[in-house]
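Ticket #4471: structure export looks truncated?
Reporter: QA, pipeline team
Priority: medium

Steps to reproduce: submit the single chain below to the structure queue and open the exported record.
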Amino acid sequence: MDMIGGEAPVLIVDDDPLARELLTAVLAGCGVSRVLSAGDGEAALAVLAQATPPPALIISDIDMPRLDGWSLARRVRMGAVEACREVPIVMLTANNSDRNQQKAAIHKITAYLVKPPTPDAVKGILSSL
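Actual output as written to the record:
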């Protein structure tokens, strides 16, 4: 996707501040200059509603308090923030299980990143968009 690394930001959603910092650094190394972050799905929806331009990509942890990654993905796909309905979503997971793959298909998840994400894995996903 041409917009990644340009003006449109990438949104990172994870309840672990250290994980957000790590992924921000990895994205910076991949040429992504604008990163937004949120600590859970509820906060992410608020960030999405205010984001101008909308993010080029959402990278979300699955297991978070208040609103988990699956619920965030469902609400984004259902148009909770209309401008973000088709934004690619990448899920962060420690376990790429069959159940997660089934849920990914339902929620139109673009890809997975296994924690902790490596620069090569992130570059691969960014180049596939």
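Status: closed, not a bug. The export was complete when the record was re-opened. Leaving a note from the reviewer for reference: Residues 97 and 103 are 10 Å apart (CA to CA).
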